[in-house]
Amino acid sequence: MERKIILENIEVEGIRSLEVYRKNGGYTSIEKALKTMTPDDIVAEVKTSGLRGRGGAGFPTGMKWSFIDKKSGNPRYLVCNADESEPGTFKDRYLLMNIPHRLIEGMICSAYALGSNKAYIYVRGEFKTIIGILNEAIKESYKAGLLGKNILGSGYDLDLHVHSGAGAYICGEETALIESLEGKRGNPRLKPPFPAIKGLYGCPTVVNNVETLANIGWIVNNGGEEYAKIGIGRSTGTKLISACGNINNPGVYEIEMGLPVEEFIYSDKYCGGVKGGKELKAVIPGGSSVPILPKNLILKTAEGQPRLMSYESLSEGGFITGSMLGSGGFIVYDEDACIVRNTYNFSRFYHHESCGQCSPCREGTSWMESVLHRIENGEGKMKDIDLLVSIASKIEGNTICPLGDAAAWPVGAAIRHFRSEFEFHVENPEIVKNVKHGSLEKYKEVPVTTGE
Amino acid sequence: MFKVTIDNKSIEVEPGTTILQAARMIGGDVVPPAMCYHSELKNSGGKCRTCMVKVAQGSAADPRPMPKLVASCRTEVMDGMVVENLTSPQVVDARKAVVEFLLLNHPLDCPVCDQAGECDLQNLSYENGSNETRFEEEKRTYEKIDIGDLIQFHPNRCILCYRCVYAADQLTDNRVHGILYRGEKSEISTFIHQAIENDFSGNMIDVCPVGALTDKTFRFKNRVWFLKPMDAHRSCTKCKGEATIWFRGDEVYRVTGRKDTYGEVHDFICNECRFEKKSSADWVIEGPRKIASYSVINQNHYKNVVIPSVINPIKETME
Which residue of B has its CA nearest to A365? Predict the structure, then answer.
């Protein structure tokens, strides 16, 4: 089920430049949108398309747009969230790096639909090269009259700015992003009010992910109905998946929603199977925040149905036996991977990235990290495992923003599905202290003597 | 007017009232505790998560419950809203968890802490905490930071409620106070460790719910439960001049703003009143400050209170 919307023509040489992009059908949607459609038409098309936010939460984009407050008379802003920092997710980077005009085209249509005359791209600070690429692309678009005053003679004005983050994962949360964009410390805001009512500078704002906005051009050109035909059920369209971990072909793939997970992992068109012919152990299907699933549950649901790459199928079974599509950071672990070490690593990340505003996340993330560190280094106790479950459950749902949930889910899921591995770490401190990498499970059968 | 029901008790409040404010209007057990919220400080609240409640019914028009617990200090009531505080086991559980989180790195040095006896965290953990800890790691500690001659800053005790940041920001002219670093490593700091010199800086002591910011002119001089708070006023050009002065015998040990039942000061006082006027001659005494009957400050003090009408009321009430 190969279907390209966002990465169409990605193989064309020089597609990064406006000239080549336009030659290959780029920017036709602008003409159509500005000259033949009203803003409400576009919103209606996007609603029909069933497009859902690609940043992780999967909220219907058209609905998000319809929430924007048009009555207040305040200026409205469109902000593109390019602060992609989730471990395992690198789809937006690939898109921005190679085909930046796809985003700009989508943003012009979207800004027009929202009645916004100013739009921002908030780029992750570490993406230094991309900031250059985007600025270059925007410059080209201004020159060609696609941005600025009176775009293509339609009377519609739009200014697009690139804003660089300063290295904080939390600024990918939409309200922290807005704070950061305003020049403040990137602390998430309390909601409500939601950005659609009070966002950037207190004005109505829509924050969308790069991939979401990159779809809009196609939807304008081909209509929402056409888009809704792609995909499966309520997961319409295609999805960029950044595959990494122990696989033969890591990289970014555009897939049609509904592709079986098994095919995605083993087909040579995509991941190409587990590296070195090893056995698949587990997969995190949507970036580090979502629950890890063991082989049997990622290939098939608890009911025995094949698991598909879609919002619904991946979350089937709730968190007991399911996970989430999330941002599409597909991380594959082979039989030698150590789940405890991996969980510790994620925990360390969330501890480092917590903004420190609310107490459950600030204190809980650091606590989980230290307990996991203990277990990983052979100093854990049996009761630590239940302690971790308890801490995770107490952070989850009690924080201002979803970072607390994102920190708690991987820990809870790892223990849920791989408890024996945690117990092994506790029971065999000598092995744990001496073997840092790889699965310790295998030592269960062949006890290893460690040195003297 | 919006009708809101909290723990089966109903009240009608103005639109725009928060759940916490409505609960305080009802009073009693329905009031959720709050550590970071201060009604006089704009934008405060929402951070500590102690005041979280369950909204069982969003409003009369949309009766769906809210999916997560909400911070009552920052959530406005809707007409017909039904809120559960102590009646919801989920809320009680979450509050216990928050207390545990807040105490993880908080030193249990109450015996040597000036705030003991009037500490919000002490009260909170007494009511909602567990008497043992599951935390085996070493507590987070900081070097002492000098923020001037009048205020002692003890970062180890800080629970990062941000109240002092808002106070410094909203009461004083030049903002010199903020948060450094991120996450668990966050710390309250003045701009490059500068002294906070401002007429109203002393209010940061009053807004601090714990013993992180204490009065240097009062440190280690006395325990609050040995002192007797009296409401007093003086004419002051900088502030309203209405304060609480704390006596032991005839001696004034310290001056603070007037804290209400929820530990909030509504009339902030200036540094002159707070730090320089430490003689009963400077003040017109109004009478004993009303302290909640359960407060340790109240112990053994107000058994036979008479409204003072004589020249030296202090002596009489102390005896």
Answer: B184
**What does the pLDDT look like over A240-262, one tens digit per residue?**
999 999 999 999 999 999 999 99
CB-CB under 8 Å, A168 with B97? no
Taking CA atoms, what residue in A is nearest to B159?
A: A359
Element (H, E) at B24: helix B19-26
Return the CATH number of B105-132+141-215, one of 2.30.30.90, 3.20.20.60, 3.30.70.20, 3.30.450.40: 3.30.70.20
The DSSP symbol for B7 reads T
Instruction: Say which residues have a Cβ less than 8 Å from residue A51's Cβ, sequence separation at least 6.
Output: A60, A61, A62, A212, A215, A216, A219, A224, A227, A236, A237
- A:B CB pairs within 8 Å: 89
Test mutation, B37, B49, B77, B191, chain A, max A CBs within 10 A? B49
* Integer angstrom CA distances of residue A297 from A285, A293, A322, A328: 11, 6, 7, 18
> Residue with structure tokens 């295609």?
A238
A198 part of contact set with chain B, CB < 8 Å: no
CB–CB of B94/B70 below 8 Å? no
Q: What does the pLDDT look like over B165-210, one tens digit per residue?
A: 888 888 877 667 788 888 888 888 776 556 677 888 899 999 999 9
Is A356 an 8 Å CB contact of chain B? Answer: yes
The parent domain of residue A250 ranges over 237-334
Phi and psi at residue B231, to the nearest 5°: -75, 135
Distance between CA A403 and CA A94 in Å, rounded?
Answer: 24
**Does this complex have an ipTM over 0.95?**
no
